[in-house]
Description:
The longest helix is centred in the middle third of the chain and has 16 residues, at 18-33. The protein is mainly alpha-helical. It has one domain.
Amino acid sequence: MTFGTDGWRGIIADDFTYESVRIATQGIAQYLTSRPNPSAIIGYDTRFASDLFAREVAQVLAANG
Length: 65
Protein backbone atom coordinates (compact mmCIF):
# COMPACT_ATOMS: atom_id res chain seq x y z
CA MET A 1 0.00 0.00 0.00
CA THR A 2 1.25 3.43 -0.87
CA PHE A 3 -0.11 6.47 0.93
CA GLY A 4 0.46 9.96 -0.41
CA THR A 5 -0.61 13.39 0.75
CA ASP A 6 -4.06 12.74 -0.70
CA GLY A 7 -4.53 9.23 0.70
CA TRP A 8 -4.11 5.68 -0.53
CA ARG A 9 -2.94 5.49 -4.13
CA GLY A 10 -3.11 2.32 -6.19
CA ILE A 11 -4.29 0.50 -9.28
CA ILE A 12 -7.50 -1.49 -8.94
CA ALA A 13 -6.87 -5.25 -9.01
CA ASP A 14 -3.12 -4.68 -8.65
CA ASP A 15 -2.39 -3.08 -5.29
CA PHE A 16 -5.93 -1.90 -4.55
CA THR A 17 -7.80 -5.17 -4.04
CA TYR A 18 -10.60 -6.45 -1.85
CA GLU A 19 -8.00 -8.12 0.36
CA SER A 20 -5.92 -4.95 0.76
CA VAL A 21 -9.08 -2.98 1.56
CA ARG A 22 -9.98 -5.55 4.22
CA ILE A 23 -6.48 -5.37 5.74
CA ALA A 24 -6.49 -1.56 5.87
CA THR A 25 -10.03 -1.52 7.25
CA GLN A 26 -9.16 -4.05 9.95
CA GLY A 27 -6.42 -1.71 11.16
CA ILE A 28 -8.86 1.18 11.24
CA ALA A 29 -11.42 -0.98 13.05
CA GLN A 30 -8.88 -1.92 15.72
CA TYR A 31 -8.11 1.75 16.29
CA LEU A 32 -11.79 2.73 16.38
CA THR A 33 -12.77 0.01 18.83
CA SER A 34 -10.01 1.11 21.20
CA ARG A 35 -11.78 4.47 21.57
CA PRO A 36 -14.95 5.25 23.49
CA ASN A 37 -18.10 5.44 21.33
CA PRO A 38 -16.52 4.44 18.01
CA SER A 39 -18.28 5.46 14.81
CA ALA A 40 -17.47 5.69 11.12
CA ILE A 41 -18.91 7.08 7.92
CA ILE A 42 -18.30 5.15 4.72
CA GLY A 43 -18.41 7.06 1.46
CA TYR A 44 -17.84 6.15 -2.17
CA ASP A 45 -17.86 7.82 -5.55
CA THR A 46 -18.55 6.90 -9.17
CA ARG A 47 -15.25 5.16 -9.88
CA PHE A 48 -15.28 1.52 -10.97
CA ALA A 49 -16.34 -0.84 -8.14
CA SER A 50 -16.29 1.95 -5.56
CA ASP A 51 -19.60 0.74 -4.13
CA LEU A 52 -18.25 -2.81 -3.87
CA PHE A 53 -15.16 -1.66 -2.01
CA ALA A 54 -17.37 0.40 0.32
CA ARG A 55 -19.43 -2.72 1.01
CA GLU A 56 -16.24 -4.61 1.97
CA VAL A 57 -15.35 -1.81 4.38
CA ALA A 58 -18.83 -1.97 5.92
CA GLN A 59 -18.60 -5.73 6.39
CA VAL A 60 -15.22 -5.54 8.13
CA LEU A 61 -16.33 -2.72 10.41
CA ALA A 62 -19.57 -4.53 11.26
CA ALA A 63 -17.65 -7.71 12.08
CA ASN A 64 -15.65 -5.69 14.61
CA GLY A 65 -18.72 -4.37 16.37
